[in-house]
Amino acid sequence: MLKWAIIFLVISIIAGLFGFTGVARTSKTIAKVLFFIFLIIFILILLLGKLIF
Prior knowledge:
Helix content: over 70%
InterPro entries: DUF1328 (IPR009760)
Strand content: under 5%
Distance between the termini: 26 Å
Oligomer: single chain
Keywords: Cell membrane, Membrane, Transmembrane, Transmembrane helix
Shape: rod-shaped
Structural class: mainly alpha
GO cellular component, one term: plasma membrane
Protein name: DUF1328 domain-containing protein
Number of strands: 0
């Protein structure tokens, strides 16, 4: 899933360069949401790993 966040980030950058504002805005939003989801999951895994071990 992190792969999808990176893909959407690249799409948003390329679309921004070409001036496709609708595509850039949508892909940027998706990339941002996926990034924060994985950031939260990463922090939870770190905390749970510390509690278990």
